[in-house]
Design goal:
By secondary structure, the protein is of the alpha/beta class. It has 14 helices and 8 strands. It has an 8-stranded mixed β-sheet with strand order 3-2-4-1-5-6-7-8, sandwiched between helices. It catalyses: GTP + H2O = GDP + phosphate + H(+).
Length: about 400
Amino acid sequence: METVILAVVIAVVVLGALGGLIVGSRRRKPLPPPPPKAPDITAPPAEPHVGEEAETPRDEPRRTIEEVDLPGGPAVVVEEPPAAEAPELEIEVPEPTAGRLVRLRARLSRSQNALGKGLLTLLSREHLDEDTWEEIEDTLLTADVGVQPTQELVERLRERVKVLGTRTPEELRGLLREELLNLVGTDLDRTVKTEPEGRKPGIVMIVGVNGTGKTTTTGKLARVLVADGRTVVLGAADTFRAAAADQLQTWGERVGAHTVRGPEAGDPASVAFDAVKEGKEMGVDVVLIDTAGRLHTKTGLMDELGKVKRVVEKHAPLDEVLLVLDATTGQNGLVQARVFAEVVDITGIVLTKLDGTAKGGIVVAVQRELGVPVKLVGLGEGADDLAPFEPEAFVDALIGD
């Protein structure tokens, strides 16, 4: 019996061992197959060659196309095209300044009818009552003549019309012309001072706020001077506005004027100083200095403008400080003029855009405000549309023919 039990135990142990081996073999993962070997690539057989081509190639000197003789003609010679020459800038001859305002009278008169012809229409009424005189005052104020000059003109017109009695159109025109001339002023010295006694060059500084046309006015003034036989150096002291120096240089090149410029955002006083220095060395007649457009509310910028003036005067006194005003700005322009006059001692006024407005009375108002004359007026976009101010031609344009 014991023998049977022992045999059964041995059989169970053997069966268990065999089952474990079978399960273990199933759990084993098969190893990945080894990567295939790169196939051996056999180069295709070379094509058969004959004679010299069958030999190993040798490095031989090569000839250029110029050295190869082509059949039926000489060797081809390849010539490089000549370098293009820069075209020479043609120097323009500016229009003479004498009588410019007279020649531009038609353009000026078209934009001034509201003032001159409006006054003539009102004064021609059969009965000049208080309502009419109020309309006359309103016409003058609308044209930016200013309150005080308007009151003075109306009082004189009242007296003269009362004495005159019957008024013909010709008498009214003559009366209005005379009174407007008195208001504008015919005894003021409107010459742009560019010929200082005993020295060269004359020094002119151009100032004004942004957008009034300062740089353009500086370029046009250079043309005015060149037209009168003067030599000019331009100082591009507006170093804050992008391309201002390029714009001024272009104006100068058109009339053969040299332009002194500095780095962008550089010190404007240094550029102005160098311009006067070079002007002296070159022996030119006039140096025009274009300054940056200052906002009159910016105290620091106005102080810097005063610095430019002081630095320039280390060479010589300034002969002119011209303030450029936009004629369309009206009373705001008078505020600007007042502040600039406190900083740099304005000696003359340049009124731009006078052709595009019926507010010609700004001529009177700004002269009263600063006590200095209007010396130049801009009457258009053309290069020669800057004219010396002539009171007679101006008034004649106001009242028409």
